[in-house]
Amino acid sequence: MTVDVDVVVIGGGAAGMVAALRAARGGQTVALFEKSTQHGCNTQVSSGSLAAAGTRWQRAAGVEDSPQQQADDIVRESGDESTRPLVEALCAVAPAYLDWLNDELGHTLELGGDMRRHGMSVPRLHTDPARSGGLALVRTLRAAVAADDRIAFVDGTPGIGLLSVDGRVDGAAVLQNGERVDVRSHAVVLACDGFAANADLVAQHIPEAVDDVFQGVSTSTGDALGWATELGAATRCMTSFLGSGMVVPGYATRVNPSLPFRGALLVGLDGRRFVDEHEHGYSSLATVLRTLHGRRAVLVWDDVLHGPALQSELMRESERAGAFRQFADAASLCAALGVEQDPFAATLASFVGWDEVTGTRRPLSAPYWAAPLTSGILATQGGLDIDTTGRVLRADGSWIDGLYAGGGTAVGISGPSSRGYSSGNGLLHALGLGWIIGNHLATHR
Ligand SMILES: Cc1cc2nc3c(=O)[nH]c(=O)nc-3n(C[C@H](O)[C@H](O)[C@H](O)COP(=O)(O)OP(=O)(O)OC[C@H]3O[C@@H](n4cnc5c(N)ncnc54)[C@H](O)[C@@H]3O)c2cc1C
């Protein structure tokens, strides 16, 4: 069977839905094929924190920032100057799609002034006021897609390949009810995320993460990489990924990544500090945890930090799961979490935490909260090479006509390793490229 539309989008996460909405707004008919909303997308399990600079929420809070400053921060963290044009393009559009989400789609946003992250020179993570995570964002986008009669959202229908003629992509093949359907279009947007759920590809490209706890969704199996590379597409930074050193082993949940920046203490099982708590983002911290005995560390905080830390769905989830506990004193903490008692007592006695939000320094006081930590892999950041419009590139720099990629399917902006990931890079890429590609398709055939 063959069907004709203007634009085919493969993947119904943030990148795919934003691309579809923007293209449809320009009058294009869009068929969006989603493998399985039941198994979900990484956008919905994410914290939903959106990094953007020069926004009206920052201005209202008196925070001076600009897309250029954000781009400089991101490139400084990744150390990869080659990504600068894409980073700058993404930072430039972020304030506009935050306005669109808030004003047109009804996804109320605010600045997370207390959401401090490594490498972010000023507060620039935006969130819904309830801090309910990425599910709220996905619900907003799905409702907008459902309300647009130019978009057909076809669930349970995976893309299985690309259609092409003379090197130009002119549609995609999908599998519907076990039957192949060829869908012809003038453009195909690959938005089916990366390959973190594909154990073979992870072993091939990211061997250091093979033993990590996987914290993403099962649908990110890298399906589109093979289809595009068969047509000559180049890939880049396949070794790059979003890791987390904030994963609680045995619970497959994480603790609030703000805690180290608010004055919490990180120790190894030997009871000693192994890192400056402010020195690493959560992805970079995971690279340090991988070098520790048993890949384990322990995060310790107290009641003063606990209330603010619960202002996040991630932390509330961890609380419901029982992933962290309160201990009356250091001895009971050490006994429960397998930490060497004497060195820990000495560490605690000399530790003075620094809270970046309040600008205060203080020791921790009993009772203590604590969680064991290990390293996790959340999502990959390498993928198909693209230009600043999301067009998929060959190794010689030419683009494949009719083929676009955004979000986890395309090369990210975090450089070649997990150390270079700045908080918010994932959704900046997914929403930003969805926006750029969709707006481009709305006006170009
Ligand atoms: C636990 C976690 C927390 C995170 N927190 C943050 C955060 O707070 N801020 C941030 O910026 N980033 C965060 N990230 C990263 C961010 O979630 C991702 O970078 C982003 O969601 C990727 O968006 P996407 O649209 O590319 O992919 P997704 O949102 O994963 O959507 C891809 C969709 O494609 C579908 N699909 C896959 N294969 C096919 C196929 N063959 N055919 C059809 N459909 C297919 C999938 O089912 C899925 O619905 C987090 C990631 C994780 C895992």
What do these coordinates show?
It is built from 15 helices and 24 strands. It has 445 residues and is of the alpha/beta class. It has 2 domains: 2-196 and 381-443, FAD/NAD(P)-binding domain (3-Layer(bba) Sandwich); 243-376, Flavocytochrome C3, Chain A, domain 1 (Alpha-Beta Complex). Strands 12, 14, 15, 16, 17, 18 and 21 form a 7-stranded mixed beta sheet that branches. It has a 6-stranded mixed beta sheet with strand order 7-3-2-11-24-23, with helices on one face. Strand 8 (159-165) and strand 9 (168-176) form a beta hairpin. Helix 1 packs parallel to helix 6, helix 1 packs parallel to helix 15 and helix 13 crosses helix 14 (341-350). The structure holds flavin-adenine dinucleotide. Flavin-adenine dinucleotide (FAD) binds next to helix 1, helix 2, strand 21 and helix 15.
Secondary-structure map:
Elements: E1 2-4, E2 7-10, H1 14-25, E3 30-33, H2 42-45, E4 50-51, H3 56-60, H4 67-78, H5 84-104, E5 110-111, E6 125-127, H6 134-147, E7 151-154, E8 159-165, E9 168-176, E10 179-184, E11 187-190, H7 199-205, E12 213-214, H8 223-230, E13 235-236, E14 241-248, E15 253-254, H9 259-262, E16 265-268, H10 282-289, E17 297-302, H11 303-309, H12 313-321, E18 325-327, H13 330-337, H14 341-350, E19 353-355, E20 360-362, E21 368-380, E22 383-384, E23 391-393, E24 399-405, H15 425-443
Parallel strand pairs: 1-10, 2-3, 2-11, 3-7, 11-24, 12-21
Antiparallel strand pairs: 4-6, 5-6, 8-9, 9-10, 13-22, 14-15, 14-21, 16-17, 17-21, 18-21, 19-20, 23-24
Helix pairs in contact: 1-6, 1-15, 4-5, 5-15, 13-14
This protein binds flavin-adenine dinucleotide.
